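The records we work with from here on pair a chain with its fold. A complete example follows; check for yourself that the lines match position by position.
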Amino acid sequence: MKPFTIYHTMSESLAGQQEQLVPLIREVATPDMIYLLGASLYRRRSESIFCTTLPTAQHTADYSFLVLMGDTQKKPLSQWQDQIEQHCSLVMAVTVLVLETNTFKDWLTQGHLFARQVNDASCCLYNADHVSFPASGVCDPVTEQQALAKQYQEGLCKAKEFLAGVELFRIRKQHKMSAFMLHQSTEQALSTLLKTKTGFYSCTHNIDRLLRYASLVCYQLPDVFPRNTENEKRLFGLLQKAYIDSRYREDYTICLHDLLLLTTRVVRIMELLEESGKVFI
């Protein structure tokens, strides 16, 4: 199965990297199945006065996987995700979703949007040979669309209200609280984008993880926070830490300039969320 264009064009590269990544995952976890959800293809073209006809070089630089586990050893799924990602970073950057196998089976039986899409379109890279799934449940498309539209409207409303709180606390010169509201607005917008496009809900306050998950359905998101310079990394760190540090750490500070700059980035995420919601209008 070839679920998306990059998989088709870079199949040889993927095969080689798969031989490295699957064993790495199995070194830290005991997966029942590993699915490929997505990949990023990077292109580079260099020209100079000495050579103006160089071809474009391209390579895959990161992957997204769904890992199904029958035995999670009573550890939080988020802990498994972090462990697998850190271990795979020895080879390349990966984003990992971990689900209990029985949860996925139940979702599939119910016709859950996320499970259906994975079952119908994803490529299985590893199967422990003892997993069998039932046929995908039938879901009424009208009912499903109505439910997604409701989730979208509620999520968008919450994200906008938090953004209004950003402005209120900024005017009152409560920059820490403004940063906290900015984090909440970002979290709500990304969670809504992910849930309404994939059916998957991630119970996390980690903006980095939510950005990577939501990038599966919105290719513009990585450009909002490129993190390609030290200043960009510092700026993103202020937002990432705002959920806890802005309320509980005295050494957390954010200046007005950074607050305004971050606000423009979050407004951009809001625009992308609104653009995605046009299908519900």
In short: The chain has a mean pLDDT of 92.
